């Protein structure tokens, strides 16, 4: 199969969006904004069908990422995530992914409100890989 992003052969990740026929390499998908869920059925979605955050959160002025303290986008999007529990913790996808990898499943929580269950469920759904150990 040819990758729909780089056009090279060997693509094996299929979008699980309804009637979507896109197939891509995992690294190409990550660069293009595709989401792979690392739980349950290990589903993947292209940039058009990826899950989005349903959290309604408004920034108070320019909000920084709670991890790197650099500015985030003005609304939740692929690169900017919000804690679904407190809706006041904003962070970059790469920053929260780094925290998830170093904290692992048993210690990974919202850096602001320390919610575990709601926060982890949402991060899993949005494609954040949270290792068991």
TrEMBL record:
| Signal peptide coordinates | none
Gene Ontology CC entries for this record: nucleus
Domain of life of the organism in this record?
Eukaryota
Q: Which UniProt keywords apply?
A: Ligase, Metal-binding, Zinc, Zinc-finger
| The keyword Ion transport belongs to this UniProt entry's keyword annotation | no
What SMART domains does the record tag this protein with? PHD
Q: Which GO terms describe its molecular function?
A: ligase activity; zinc ion binding
Q: Which residues form the RING-type domain?
A: 65-114
Domain PHD-type, by residue range, is 1-50
Mind telling me what this protein is named? G2E3 ligase
Organism the protein comes from = Uria aalge (Common mure)
């Amino acid at each position: 199969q040819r990758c729909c992003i780089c056009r090279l052969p060997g693509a094996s990740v299929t979008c699980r969006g309804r009637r979507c026929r896109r197939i891509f390499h995992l690294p190409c998908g990550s660069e293009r904004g595709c989401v792979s869920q690392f739980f349950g059925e290990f589903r993947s979605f292209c940039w058009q069908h990826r899950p989005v955050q349903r959290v309604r959160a408004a920034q108070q002025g320019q909000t920084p990422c709670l991890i790197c303290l650099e500015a985030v986008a003005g609304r939740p999007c692929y690169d900017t995530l919000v804690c679904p529990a407190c809706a006041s913790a904003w962070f970059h996808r790469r920053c929260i992914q780094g925290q998830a990898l170093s904290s692992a499943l048993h210690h990974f929580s919202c850096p602001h409100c320390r919610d575990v269950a709601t926060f982890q469920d949402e991060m899993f759904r949005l494609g954040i890989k949270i290792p068991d150990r």
